[in-house]
Amino acid sequence: VALGTSSRRVVEGVHGRPRTRPAAVLEETAAAVRGLLHAPPGEPVVPGSAFRRRLAPPGGPLTVAAFGDRAIATAAVHADRMLLDIVAPEQVRVLRAKLVAAAGEAGRTPPTLAAWLPAAVDPEPETLTQVLRSVAGYLTVPGYSDVFTAAGFGEAVQLAATGADPDRLVRALPPEAAGTVGLVGDRDAVRARIDAYAEAGLDEIALVPATAGDPAGERTLEALRAWG
């Protein structure tokens, strides 16, 4: 089971549901779901319910997607895994430290830290364009805009702040921007990037292979599988 607050654009724009008190709702939901997974028979099915559990709990890990401090605290208290969304190694290092500190305050061993990352080994030009399109959506997000600015893409960040459309942002980003928050490049570059994420404290990588110019991401997946 994986939980996250998503974004206002997705929750309200796509699903038509209000996104209010997201951090509080995430904490409440994570606590309730962990109870559902692990509470013994005899406990209320949900807090306050007159119905009691009759079966053994199903068990299983709970993953919480987090980036902000309150979500990280929720993951530290309730999750078996904390998930990050397309991050740079330097972000991993900072977020890992926050997770370890929050888990220490809660008296827990820090959960596993994972991230899903765009991946493209030996990318074609159209592959890079696909990755850049996903990157463009993060240019104005706090915490990400600083990373892109520090990487030398400040002009694209400023352009995004004006409300420029995705096509214009993709044209403003150089090809090397595709590797800022993912595994993109030739085999040596991708291997070095994986090592950088591990050194920063990332335990697991969930691959999001680019498919433009690489049908089904087969070239990338085959290359990564060969490394074990």
- In CATH's first tier, which class applies? Alpha Beta
Inertia-based shape:
globular
Range of helix content: 40-55%
What composes the largest sheet?
6 strands, parallel
* CATH fold descriptor: TIM Barrel
State the distance separating the first and last CA atoms.
26 Å
> Mean of the pLDDT scores?
93
Number of domains: 1
Named at the architecture level, the CATH assignment is: Alpha-Beta Barrel
Number of strands: 6
Strand content: 5-15%
* CATH homologous superfamily grouping: Luciferase-like domain
Question: What is Rg?
Answer: 20 Å
What oligomeric state best describes the polypeptide chains here? Answer: single chain
Q: SS-based structural class?
A: alpha/beta
